[in-house]
Amino acid sequence: MPKIVDHELQKAKVAEATWRVIQKHGIEQASVRNIAEEAGISVGSMRHYFSTQSELLSYSMKRVSERVSQRIYDTVFSGDLMQDIPSLLHEVLPTDNEKRLEMEVWFSFVVKSLSDDSLRTLRHQVDDELRSIFVTVFNGLSEGQLLLPGLDVAIEVERFYAVLDGLAIHAVMRPERVTPEVMVAVIKRHLLSLCQPDVHSMAQKPDSNAKKEQPRDT
C-alpha cells in the first residue's frame, strides 16, 4: 500500500526548516538544497512543493504571519483595554524564543524583498495586516473615550507602530538590554501617554481583585 503523505504537513516542515536556516546562516544561505537538508527531505521533494526559491520564501513568511495571527486569535481578553492592548502587542514582539525566531526571519525577509520584486507584495500585505492592529487599537480607545482630545489619530497610529517596530529591532539586536519586561513597560508607558489623565489614575490603582494579605495568627 503506498505511503500517504500529508502535503500541508510537509510544507509546514519545510517552512520551519527555512526559518532555522535563515536564523543560523542568513537568508543568503536559504537555498533549496540547504533547506532540504535541514528538513531531512530530498531536493526532489522540495521541487515538488516549491518551484522557485521566491515561492519557498513567500510560503515560509506567510506561515510566520499565520502563526502570529493565530496567537492573537487565541488570546483571551479581559475587556479592559489598558490590559488587553499590551497583551495583544505582546504576541507580536519577540518576547520568547519562538517569537524571536519569527522576528529574525521576518527582518531577513524584509531585506531580501527590497531586491526581489516577487516578495514585495507579500511584504506590503503583512505590513498592512500589522498596521491594522493599531487602527483597531485606536478605534477601541476612541470608542471608550480614553484618548486625549485633539490627537491626530492617523499620525498616532504610525507612531505607535514605529514604537513596536523599534522595540522589536532593538530586542533582536540587544536582547540582554531590551528584555521582554522592558518591551512591555515601554508599550504600557506609550499607551498611557495617549490617554486622558483619569486613565493614568486608574492604571496606578492596585488591583481590587488581588488577594489581600491575611492577618497573621498571634
From TrEMBL:
<feature type="DNA-binding region" description="H-T-H motif">
    <location>
        <begin position="31"/>
        <end position="50"/>
    </location>
</feature>
<dbReference type="InterPro" id="IPR036271">
    <property type="entry name" value="Tet_transcr_reg_TetR-rel_C_sf"/>
</dbReference>
<keyword id="KW-0804">Transcription</keyword>
<keyword id="KW-0805">Transcription regulation</keyword>
<keyword id="KW-0238">DNA-binding</keyword>
<dbReference type="InterPro" id="IPR039538">
    <property type="entry name" value="BetI_C"/>
</dbReference>
<dbReference type="InterPro" id="IPR023772">
    <property type="entry name" value="DNA-bd_HTH_TetR-type_CS"/>
</dbReference>
<dbReference type="InterPro" id="IPR050109">
    <property type="entry name" value="HTH-type_TetR-like_transc_reg"/>
</dbReference>
<dbReference type="InterPro" id="IPR009057">
    <property type="entry name" value="Homeodomain-like_sf"/>
</dbReference>
<dbReference type="Pfam" id="PF00440">
    <property type="entry name" value="TetR_N"/>
</dbReference>
<protein>
    <submittedName>
        <fullName>HTH-type transcriptional regulator PksA</fullName>
    </submittedName>
</protein>
<dbReference type="InterPro" id="IPR001647">
    <property type="entry name" value="HTH_TetR"/>
</dbReference>
<feature type="domain" description="HTH tetR-type">
    <location>
        <begin position="8"/>
        <end position="68"/>
    </location>
</feature>
<dbReference type="Pfam" id="PF13977">
    <property type="entry name" value="TetR_C_6"/>
</dbReference>
<keyword id="KW-0678">Repressor</keyword>
